Amino acid sequence: MIWPDLKRVEVPMSLKAKAHIAVRSWARQGACVERMPNPIADPAQVARDLLLRIANGDREAFSALFLIAAPKIKAYLLRLGCPPAGAEELTQDVMLAVWRKARLFDPVKAGALTWIFVIARNRRIDSLRRERSTRTYGAHPPDVKDEDTPLASDIVAGAQRDILVRNAMKTLAPDQREVLQRSFFDDQPHAEIAAALNLPLGTVKSRLRLAMEKLRVRLGNLA
Amino acid sequence: MILHAPTPPPTHHPSLETLTRYAAGTLRAGFDFVTAVHVSKCLHCREQVAALECVGGALLHETTGAPVQEDALARTLARLDEPAFEPEAPSLEQLLSDVKRRWVAPGIWVAKVNTPHDKGDRVFILSAAPGAATALHAHHGDEYTQILSGVLGDGETRFRAGDFVERGPEHMHQPHTIGQQPCVCLFATRGRLKPADMIGRLAFMIADV
Fold it and tell me: What is the ipTM of this complex?
């Protein structure tokens, strides 16, 4: 056999895992949404609340999320080189996938924008591969809800995590931000990014590393 | 009862550039696949990718939107009740086990992995028994390797099951199996391998790599 099954080792449930399960079931029931109306309506939290309503088939919530998210998704696809007509169509596909998968959204595991980003990324990959082959494969499986032992970082609720990352990113030096941004939005290896910026490859690599290190220091258990 | 010793966590990981491009979804398909196999088996890299996906979410959040067509929402709403047609994507394990082995030399078999990869990417599994010599070779492009089982020696370094190796085109090497078990590796390469001698050329021709 080529790929031996890794035996799952049973370990006693840690306190952390118990806390995680408690938080998760609480969040699933939507308790945190109703009991704690948020005085500062952060867009990430607005999007999260909308997603939880969409999971229950709420079309009004879907329309509201569409107005927030669809233009951002389209801008992201255009930036990655999608032709405009294709970006429009793919944006609608992504939003349709958001509707269909909303029940899999776990507010403890991921922030709403991160969850939407992952769906947009995966749809884009699928559509690129479909142009070359009718067969795609699941190299990026994260839209499946998994019940694995939680990562330490899961304990921070998803929306809060998204806000932390966003705030931490504001503290990055502009050149570090630029490399991060280009790494996500330019469909290019770093050697080409370096050439475009007229920088040695090593500089681009070290900026990315410094940016991620800085994010990690600021977020503690995030990475 | 004998308990299985837990597999030690991998010690060789994809570079930050590779993980970032994996999280961004911009790796070439064949390299994306091999990276996905590593990430699925490596808690450390899963956490890294999760953090990088948060960065992607934050960047998406900050993006100034591009206007969508006026009827975009109406058209999407009209499709909400369409039955979802999602062709079932084969899992990584399925793709890895759904392969045909071809013996190319004593103790060595190669199997192409059927992924819809970019033209020019090659994804294959290579198994080398202890003592089987692989051919000294270089590459036209990058090479990613995920060790599936056994121990691989490359120069001074030993790579164990779960480890990931990235090599650039300039790297000339002759990896070999260490220990009593065959070493089984998953490779993605860009372009054909460049064998350094005649035997290698023959072996690579038979193996179609």
Answer: 0.86
